Amino acid sequence: MTLTTQEIMQLAPVIPVMVIDRAEDAVPLANALVNGGLKVLEITLRTAAALESIRLIKEAVPDAVVGAGTIINVGNLFDSLQAGAEFIVTPGTTTAIVDASVEAGVPLLPGVNTPSEAMTLLERGFDCLKFFPAEAAGGVPMLKAMGGPLPQLRFCPTGGVTPANAASYLSLPNVSCVGGSWMAPADLVRAGNWAEIERLAAEAASLGGKS
Question: Which residue among the candidates 58, 130, 135, 198 is catalytic per the annotation?
Answer without folding.
Answer: 130
